[in-house]
Amino acid sequence: MTSQSFRDSLSSLGWSQRDTEMPVSTSQRTGLLSSLQSWNPFGDSGWTLGSILFLSSFAAMMGPWAYVQHLASAPRLPFTGAYFGSIALTLYFSLGLHSTILTLLSAILQLACLLWYLVSYFPMGSSSLRFATSLGARRAAAWMTS
After folding, report:
1. Are 99 and 91 in contact (CB under 8 A)?
2. 64 lies in a domain?
3. What is the arithmetic mean of pLDDT over 105-126?
4. C-beta separation of 128 from 119 below 8 A
5. Does 130 map to a domain?
6. In-domain check, residue 22
7. How many domains is the chain built from?
8. Sign of the alpha-carbon torsion through 75, 81, 82, 84
9. Which domain, by its residues, includes 87?
10. Residue 25: C-alpha distances to residues 6, 90, 100 (Å)
């Protein structure tokens, strides 16, 4: 049996019993993730600028002109178009349209292109990525049908 005072204390925790003098904060600047975001010197487009700096580091190691020629080579051209296109879309959706959903989708595309880029430099990286993707798809399909 619970006591009446315990029940009264539980019902006092409800929304209707809150102090009306105290304002309710509905801003997005509360919580751990927003405090981490406040440390980002690039603002909302930090991921994209980080990706550009990532590519710039490869250009610094290989030499800028040699890296541009490498990115424009026939085997790398699909990556170059997809990656730079996803960077442009992310910047446009975040800074131009201010659309959170479209920015998130283009950032996911950008991450997939970055993964493709990194895996392509490992020995047998693309075939391993194809194998892991097909294995994951089969496991997901088996999980959904069972």
Report:
1. no
2. yes
3. 80
4. yes
5. no
6. no
7. 1
8. positive
9. 44-122
10. 28, 29, 21
